[in-house]
Design a protein that fits this description.
Length: about 160
């Protein structure tokens, strides 16, 4: 694949990370931080504000797995393809999570097969893509958002559409 320039990589990265964060907000998984690097490298991250113990306590592992999937779902839906750079890391996180919470291999494989569809279902919620675009814009400005910041951007994006 041809090397993309820094700006284009950041643009994709911002939407990928925003996909994780908006999905997390909609699924009740608190965000610790979401950002893209300021150096044009197209690197970034979304981190949930949950420990493994809290995920277990609240039974949030399916939601967490869906959040992990949503970066590449958003990339695919907005840009037609997803960049393996991020997606390999996301897959590692999902695989480790499922190993912890679904020890049975058959159940794990069944859940993994359903995961892309579960993630796509989240993208059909009201204001999902409006919110992703609004969060991505903030990330491209260099903002690092925590859960309160993500919530504020999503609420603002939804208000602009005049439906809440
Ligand atoms: Zn990701």
């Amino acid at each position: 694949m041809a090397e993309k320039d820094g700006h284009a990589k950041d643009f994709v990265a911002a939407h990928h990370e925003a996909g994780h964060a908006v999905g997390a907000y909609m699924l009740g998984v608190p965000t610790k931080v979401v950002y893209i690097e300021a150096d044009g490298s197209g690197e970034g991250d979304w981190k949930p504000a949950l420990t493994i113990g809290e995920i277990r306590k609240h039974g949030l592992w399916p939601e967490y797995a869906i959040c992990g999937e949503l970066g590449r779902t958003v990339e695919r839906m907005l840009f037609g393809s997803s960049d393996s750079r991020f997606c390999d890391d996301d897959q590692d996180v999902i695989d480790r999570l499922l190993l912890t919470f679904l020890p049975d291999r058959g159940e794990r494989e069944k859940f993994k097969a359903k995961l892309p569809q579960l993630a796509e279902d989240v993208t059909r919620r009201p204001f999902f893509f409006e919110s992703v675009k609004a969060v991505a814009q903030e990330l491209l400005k260099g903002e690092r958002l925590d859960n309160t910041g993500v919530k504020a951007v999503i609420e603002e994006a939804s208000r602009k559409r005049g439906r809440i």
